[in-house]
Batch of 4 targets.
Target 1
Amino acid sequence: MSGHRREGLLLAIAVGVVGVTFGVLADAAGLSLPRVIVMSALVFTGASQFAAVSVVDAGGSGPAAVGSAMLLAARNALYGPVVARLLPRRRAFRALGAHLVIDETTAMASVQADDDAAADAFWWTGVWLWTLWNLGSIGGARLGAAIGDARTWGLDAAFPAAFVALLAPHVRTAPGRVAAILGAGLAMATVPLAPAGVPLLVAALAVGPAAWWHVRSAATP
Amino acid sequence: MTWWAIGALVVGAYGCTLLGVFVLARLDARAEAATTGWVRRLPLIATLIPAALFAALIAVQTFDVDGSLRLDARAAGLAVSAVAVWRRAPFAVVVIGAMSVTAVIRWQTSG
């Protein structure tokens, strides 16, 4: 198995275990197994699924759950321009690929050396993730609370760590570093002020100053 | 959650990725032909989005606890992963190293 496929599988295993946690939480929030299955298969955006189920678990309404979940799903639109050229031209396959556009697949694709490897990494990571996320959430919903808290195993630390590795190639240029530092700063400043999901959308504003930096340094050699 | 709420979430979430892949990406491609204005900068902006969003994800996943910033065992995991990436360790070492350190610190500090 080539390097990026193996890395995609490793990431997917971690996501699968988080899927178990999601299943447990969804079960505790009163979602039936068919609903958990449909949600994981068709929404397929871990963070927004967690948000929706947490709101319901805390006694929130359906629209409130959907609203907070949508704030977290909105950033996937921003990944479109990053991965679009890797997707097949045929509309149906392109639409199928769009379903797999999430943080992890975009990240795995964006660190590859060329477009062929990037497309391969996108699809393999996407299929691994989709499969294990669904198996995990079904398992979690069936087993319920018997599994315990995934945080005991440090699983919540797996994602930031994976993203540190996936961020590294993007901060080799000065504008990339500006975008990363400003993005992290804006997100942290927004955390206490806004509901979950909003900090990541605010962080996207960091690309403005970073692009300006790029243009300015290109103009004055 | 009702089936209606789940249906709305499916349509909304998929709508976001479709919007990105079919609409935003087309704007991006058209921008390469443009010569003036901010539209010309769209491809550059697209290449900078991962840097901004991944860094923000790392920060939020490490320091956010239900809407407030907190320093806990995850920060040690983050430090380990940063050193591992800097030393060019393999991906598995980066991820499993951060998990182990976080788990051990939690285990040591609980109870």
Target 2
Amino acid sequence: MSLERIKIAPEMYEIMPPEYQDLVKNATYGNENRGWKDIGTSKELIEEHSLCAGCPESMAFRYILASLPAPEDTVMVGSTGCTSLVFPHVGIHNIHSLFGNQNAIATGLKRALTVRFPGRIKDVVVLAGDGATVDIGLDMTLQAWFRQEKFTTICFDNELYANTGGQESGLMQKGFVAKMAPVGKTFEKVRLPEIARESGCHYVVNCTVSKPNLIEKVIKNAIHIAREIGPTYLQLYTPCILEIGKNSMEGLQEMRDSEKPTERFAYREYISDQAKELLTEMAAKEKERKAEAKRQLASVKA
Amino acid sequence: MSTSYQVLRGPEHFLPPAAASMGIRLPDPGQGHIHGKIVSEEEAMEAAARQFLSAKVPTIFPGPLVLWAWNEKAAHKATAVRHLYETLKASVTSTQQAMLIPMPDYRPKYPKINPEVEINPNHPNLTIWHNKIDACMFVGVHCHQANLSLKIIRGGTDCYTIAMCAQAGHEDAMLSFRDATAEKIMRLADWVKKLKGSVEPPK
């Protein structure tokens, strides 16, 4: 997909369902400044979804899709889990992989896209749950990082297997009792952010999705660093309100409680030296771009 | 390989076999197939036009390859499909209802689609049942999704399926063209116009 391809043939325009007309007219494809603030004022790339009412994962999806730098040139790779219920609804190319295989699929995809579209930047973003990323797919996750594959891995960490009724996962906290893990977890939560850093990821963030502006920043950083340098990893807490005994309105508070300085989702970030240089360069360019826009605006007014 | 299998109106059964596995082969250039039998393209044109004119709800299902203006060729095809639809609409009687229903993409769209305004390849039977469609033509649908849909339709409905395929044709349709171009779609419109009034409308 590219921007010029998101056009409806004029003779067919009136028969297209309204949401497609809206997608062409009011979505933010091609807008360099797109971000979470577009939510509510432009057509989102995800609207209806089949997640539970109040699920923080739906918030996370909305912020991430609103923050992708180039959705028209992005392919997302998903895996089995709650996220796979959402992907059929999104306005972005996506592939559903076999459970745990997402980073292997993304590797082949990224390489193929690089060969097929040499003059064009194509972003690949993996988005999977903690079961796919840390348990079943850990091999594929790590091998992709060891090989320095240039794509972003996002893990929606809800600390258990949610859509199969609450089994224990590697990212579950020690001692937690779930519906299908009645004895309680006997070992510590796997320290995947630290493992990611040691495995060669150039940008690693561990946080919740309670703050949309923060999610926008980390998504953009992760994707730009993956494009230019190498693998990046984001571990985002998206609690399963059903499995931890909360109701629909309590997801946001649960995330806020879990990101306090002493808690397990306190904001943690690792940036390699190479990535730091890139981010500094990007910030300088962005500053220059804004200054130029301001100058142009002033000259028009004059 | 000879076969006695014919690709006929369904409902065949829940999981009809892939026609290719039953020995149905694809037409060569300049040919089409009707129920799995290879015929000349003109013969297929005439048969397709007759099917359209004798159906209560003849319907065209344009897919992503013609709905979206990917390139100039796609835009020409979209114009031709629209022309075919307008010709069909003008050629049927007041008891018939020609329809043009889009298949904008292949997302499964769970938990539901709106069968009044679109068709989805993963459950095409819903749109066919809802609108009581008894003859349809696929155009601009990628091969795999077209075959999937054609099989589902043959399995669960009594709708007659026609494929206007840009590649080598579809065994799973009851009637298939190959190498579809804008000109070929226009020729089908000419056949519809030519046979207007000479085909008995449905009772």
Target 3
Amino acid sequence: MADFHIRLDGVTKTYGSLRVVDNLRLDIIRGEFLSLLGPSGSGKTTILMMLAGFQDASEGTIYVDGNMINDIPSHKRNMGVVFQSYALFPHMSVAQNVAFPLKMRGFGRSDIRERVERALDMVQLSTMKDRKPSQLSGGQQQRVALARALVFEPGVVLMDEPLGALDKQLREQMQLDIRELHARLGLTIVFVTHDQSEALTMSDRIAVFNKGRIEQIDTPRMIYDHPATRFVAEFIGETNLMEGEIAGREGDEAMVRLSDGCMMRVRARDGLERGAKVLVTIRPEKVELSDPPAAANSFPVTVSDTIYQGDHFRVQLQGAGQRFIARRDRRAAEWPQGARLHATFAADDCWVIAP
Amino acid sequence: MRPGKLIPAVFGLLAVSFLLLPLLVILPLAFTSSLFLIYPIPSFSLRWFDVLVTNPVWRAAIVNSLIIGIGTTILSTVLGGLASLGLREKLRFVSAPLSTLFLLPMVVPAVVLGVGLQILYARFGLSSTYLGMIIAHTVIAIPLVMVSVTNSLQGMDSRLELAAASLGAGPAATLLHVTLPLAMPGILTGAVLAFAVSLDEVVLNIFLAGPGQRTIARQMFAELRDNISPAIAAAAFLFIAGTIVLMALVLLMRRRVGGTAS
């Protein structure tokens, strides 16, 4: 049985008539890296603010270790918070910034020095300890913020788009660093991001938010391969969507009649009644392209464009009355615009969701 | 230099001259040996500074200015600073009217304020007291403190205070270790402005002070009316030099505190 560290029960946040977070139920497992992923305005940051105690929940209860914490002020919650803007104290040196939470907790002088040293070592910034934050680069500042949020050994670390202000290369390095820190320290981390690839890279679980509600919460793999809703399928990575209805079942496969009349085999799921309207999703990298048709689930398509993307080609296709995207390796260069091919969708790679 | 740069430069020079020339004309007169405020200066002398410190009337005026000025600085910086902090809380129908109310003394004519306070003080026995003068100057100094403190608070990232709270600092510790140090440039500027305003003030002093609370500015004003002695120029010199030193101090401290803040 999972050990729940934090539980949000019926948590709602309203601003006037706007429900930013809507009756949320969320259990956060001890030691997990949970990403709250969603577009801006989906309520993910508001949840973090309520966890940190910066904002009050309009309704509902937040439990940590089984104790309700709604009325506990921020400074007694013992949670580390990392902000996108770093929020380092500009009038203090790097070492003083990291020492701040220890000073507030009344640690002894030598103890503080030792712990600050260790925390700065952990983020490889020991040599910078006497500098002011303004003398550091963005990535270094974020590492100081990380050290400051970890140095007092909080049980939970909340991160609000901490890598959003960094450039791509640095961001990817920091993603790996934070992932490694998480594994080493066994922390519970709640990580807010709108970057789906970041969430996929770092998380044990991802909660996908839309309009103040969770659309799906699961492992990155399940979220990507088996999205629960159209929103999730479209928000995480790219996908092809085809409308149709269930025409029948055969063992662990189901038949879908697409809107143009073609039949398609898909992986069956429970609760798919004959006649139910469905959406079939298939990821671009699972679309097989060939000149002669393959055995089953093959449809004639026309290449409308081929775009070079470095490590792959993005092939835009027209067929079955709609557009498709396929992701192919370098051989795709052989297909000129207007080439007639067959697209094949393996039944196992076709996932069915409610429209 | 191209005309596009020349014209603003000339204009700037004229504006600065307009502001500084009157001072440059009067200041050398502080060092005259003559009995009158006239050029050319017969010879260099410090006799009028000597008058300032030896003449009991001037000496008392200097001491009074310092007492009232320091009292005003402390009281108005504390009150104005607290008001600025409090008014960050945006309560509907409360914050905006309150902040306007606090800034009102800036636009109320000093004469009106003087008459009003005179009547009020007569009732409370504050007429002709140091406390009365300090309170009166505090009323006109608070808006200056508030404007400058509010300014520096607004320039502060509010997430810093959230960060402090998340790191275990309660409201008092956050104020002490984060908010106040970061607002310090504004607080210092406000304090210096408050001191300068108190030093400079004449009208309220005429209305509210007794002979025991005559300040330098008031004494200068009085002297101007009967005998125009170079002691006024010497007092003005002290005034200006003092203000410049204070401002330089503030600039220095701002650089130390705020230099890395931006």
Target 4
Amino acid sequence: MSGWMGQILRIDLDNEQVTVERLDRQLAKDYIGARGLGTKLFYDEVDPKVEPLAPENKLIFATGPLTGTAAVSGSRYNVVTKSPLTGTIAASNSGGYFPSELKYAGYDAIVFEGKAEKPVYIVIDDDQVEIKSADNLWGKTTLETDNYLRSEYSDKFKTATIGPAGENLVKFACIMNDRERAAGRSGVGAVMGSKNLKAVMVRGTQGVQVANKDKFKQVLKKSLDKIKESGVTNEGLPALGTAVLVNIVNEHGNLPTRNFQEGIFKEAEQISGESLADELLVKNKACAGCPIGCGRVSLVPDGEYEGFGEGPEYETIWAFGADCDIDNLKAITKANFICNELGLDTITMGTTIACAMEMYEDGVLTDEEIGLNLEFGNAQAMVEAVGLTGKREGIGDLLAEGSYRLAERYGKPEYSMSTKKQEYPAYDPRGSQGMGLEYATSNRGGCHVRGYMTSPEILGVPESLDPFTVEGKAEWTKIFQDLTGVVDASGICLFTTFALDAEDIYKLLESVTGAGYTEEEMMQAGERIWNLERVFNAKAGIEPDEDKLAKRLVEKPMPEGPAEGKVVDLETMLDEYYELRGWSSNGEVTEEKIAELGI
Amino acid sequence: MQKTLLINPKKCTGCRTCELVCSLEHEGEFNPSLSRVTMINFPEEIVTIPVTCFHCQEPSCRQACPVGAIEKDDEIGAVVIDDNQCIGCNMCLMVCPIGVISMAGSSSKSHHAKCNLCDGEPECVDFCPGGALEYGRPDEVLWERKKKMAKHLRNLLEEAI
């Protein structure tokens, strides 16, 4: 096979059994890989009603056919499982080097099943796979674990590991690979922790084959030219990282501030990508095969927030910054570093603290109860809360459940800015209506990387749309969601779509795999992935009436700025969206649609 | 003047594109373990440095080769192994001080994997997005660096005066 390695590694942790299975060619073509293939394998094998932290839940690491190739930013894998945070399908995406190395070892995916009796880690050295005791690693941070594993074996190995947060089953624990790249959202790290699986290390010497080398090089050249011509991928992201968005989104009045009570953060300049570049940035860092290099390496040389590492990204800066009313970039960066070491999703962490801050402000949470002054703007308390959460100590034990469960515990779920119990990222949809539809319909709950409507509504890419109108947004959202499914499944980075269109991605995919796709078939695979996730969620008990937004966004008009007076007109967009999707008028995937897509 | 490959580690973002396009060009597949250029990663310091054949003026590999299969191509500046003459004794691999000669292929049909500057049009240089790899006359490449430094010095002087 070209593109795909043709093998799936299955690791049964109950019985310490390792088996290798052949990847079915048609399955690979229909679901492409990574998010698509992982979800299909998961759907076929796991009862949707499974308790996410039970041994019967499975954890799948899946790469795409373009992972490990020079196709622009072909560095990604997806971790697929049932989320302990949302109860929906989880597919968390990460880059770095580990995903490519998994391909070089000869595997498209790993399926972990069962639960190890005691903590273990896995060593994958081409076709040699060993399960080793991790007794001495349990409790260690992600960086300590990576240090230990590489020194014990060879630093040619690439690692993916959980930190204490995953071990402590924090509902939004992530899996860190290559030290500081995160399969961040939906608590995939907690599932890994529930299996007593501390780390996976991999080294490989096999090649990813290319169906049509000359054609590929030609397409690659063209794609790289487009990346160079795009202001976003050639200027904004390399110069300022994803934090380039802080000032842009703030100027549009969409930077959620104080737990989405406002849309303009007056101190945005201090936490902007520009300030990061001026004050803390050491250099840029790229994932494998990436010409963009949006990663930041930052240094806080001294003081209480001293630290060195990767980050912070835009979402992180916003979650610990504007959303908590904090303008101290060093404190935000420190919170990011602690998250990386403990293995926490920065978005849910920051927004859960913001939620707790509002509850504290309103007297729902009290000093005596939480032992921490969680006033908006208290940077020290914010940083302390992050550490406590990873260890589930004090108030951290409550925060570790995420904002929805925290707020619901006090009978006030409306404080949680989330859909399907997963917190929103850094865009207030009252000033970006399409983003509202994307949040509401995302198959993994509140999320910006399932159909990034910010791109046309705020950045004007690929064309400029009026952010305040709902007109046409359902169709755009559907197309973006399906294309994102393709991108995620192929193994390249979503950021390439700031410069590349479906046709470019199709040509990369077809020249590498030679699978005989048409562009329509490729897009249909994206639609298939989207519908499969939806079908899984329905069987898991997540009903279409969960396609909703936090009350604040649909009832309370934005108080100021360009979006002043706006709420999200979700109902109008939803009706149109369900119809375009070919679902029933109340949002159920129909038998006809299932048959049409061959799910 | 002979061209040469120059590495500027400060510009390396660690993307490994060099390894990918190199293995595609020479082995027809994406496989960093067979690439003639290797990105060495120092994870604690978050630093990456590409390492490849320096195409030495007095190559120890050429000296050590018992059958004279290694020559320096003066036109493109590359130290090149002739696979037709090579008997696979691995002497070159043993004596190379940089560690940039390896074996590729199955044992019955193996060949040496060593940079030959792609016959004068190195793919790694062509595709390096950060400009960390350069190929050209050293005086020209270094002239550009000198000029950049001179501009910087000029600015400093103008500010100071």
